[in-house]
Amino acid sequence: SISGIPGGLFAPSLAVGAGLGAEVAGLFQGVPVGAVVLVGMVAYLTGVLQAPITSFVIVSEMTENHALVIPLMVAALIADATSKLVCPEGLYHALAEPMVERLTGRPAHAPQVNGPA
Which of 54, 56, 75 is nearest to 65 (CA)? Predict the structure, then answer.
């Protein structure tokens, strides 16, 4: 976007996660396809954002399916750990770094100097 703020991450990630969940549902005989789709949604969104609580809460609120609370939480934690193995820095932090550098004139990870004490 013109503002430089990332947008459009939630819906596409949820859609891709749902698609992946539907594709692997056949591997889990006896498990309802809808449950595997929801787990896929949480796992993919968590992998993209590295925000397991946000991902879990979004899907839980969308579905109001309280029977899947524990499986969704477990999927979010596993996806978060796996994502951090691939890329230690979260997406929002990586996207915010150039904006912070542009606004402050120093790298986002540089220590802040508050002047004389």
Answer: 56
Look at the pTM and tell me if it is higher than 0.85: no
Helices 52-63 and 33-49, interaxial angle, to 10°? 150
User: Can you tell me which residue has the tokens 């004389």?
Assistant: 116
Cα–Cα distance measured from residue 72 to residue 57, given in angstroms and rounded to the nearest whole number: 9
Burial 31-61 (b: 16+ CB within 10 A, else e): eeeebbbbbbbbbbbbbbbbbbeebbebbbe
Q: pLDDT tens, 34-72? A: 999 999 999 999 999 999 999 999 999 998 888 899 999
